Every structure is written in structure tokens, then in C-alpha cells.
Amino acid sequence: MFLFDLLTRYRWTRWAPLPLRLIVGLGFVEHGFTKLSKGPDAFTAILHAIGVPAPHLMAWLTILVELVGGFAVILGSLVPLVAVPMAAVLLVAVFTVHLPYGFSSIKLIAVTATGAQFGPPGYECDLLYLACLAALVMTGPGPLTVDELIATARHKADIEADALLTSNSST
Question: What are phi and psi of 112, to 5 degrees?
């Protein structure tokens, strides 16, 4: 057990958020792109049918949250900030669409000559996305992020400014 702890604790744990960022970000971008490519009016009609107020505005806001939020998560930029509207989109999906279908995301109805037939998905995947977003907010986005690049550049600028101030005060 000690050997496993040594190998994983310090070497690999900092990389744990990376696959979460990639799959959550990609999932959101894919959903946003699909809504956009099918035409926002198709998604607006769905929102209208389930009784969402201002469906045209909400369709565009949802697409924007999915695309911008997804790319921000992939890049590791402002994750705690973009996670809030992303979680809101997921919670609306749970309570307005998926809840009546139960927990399971895979509902095998039949297997026919044309392939497997599935029923409507439950809220399982929404909860997984919410859990991943919560993990990213609590642990940070990990390495290889835009936020890390900005922080490194700021730190370097602070060191250079301190050095400049120190050299000017000694002369």
C-alpha cells in the first residue's frame, strides 16, 4: 500500500482533473454544437413544448453556455465561474426532461435486426456531469490550463517588478 501511495500521490494526482475537463468540456461543446447545427429554432420548439419561459432567449443562452462553458472547461479557464451556468443547464434538464424517465441513462427496449432500440434517457449522465463540475471546482482544473499560464505570467511579471523596484531603491 505504501508503494502505491508513493507512486500515485505526488506524481499523478495533479493530472486527475485533466480527463474530467476534457470529457465534460467536449460533452458540453458537442451538445451546444448539435443544437446550433440543427438550428436554434428546433431547440426553441422543444423548450416551448416543455413550458420554459422565453424559449427563444433560453435556447440561445443554453447554446452559449454549452459552447463557451465547454471550451472554457477544456482550456481550464475560469472553471468555477462557468460551472455555475453549466450546472444550471444540467439541473433544468434533469427536472424538465429526464426525471420522469428515472435514473438510468440506458434503457434497452429491444434488440431487432436493425440494432438495439433504446428508450428515453434518465438523469444519470446529468448527475455525472454535475459531479465532475463539482470536482473541478473543488480541486481546481489541474495542469495545462489557460489559468495556469496567466498565473505563471503574472508571477514572472511580479518578480521582475520586484527586482526593478529593489534595484531602483538601492541606487
Answer: -115, 180
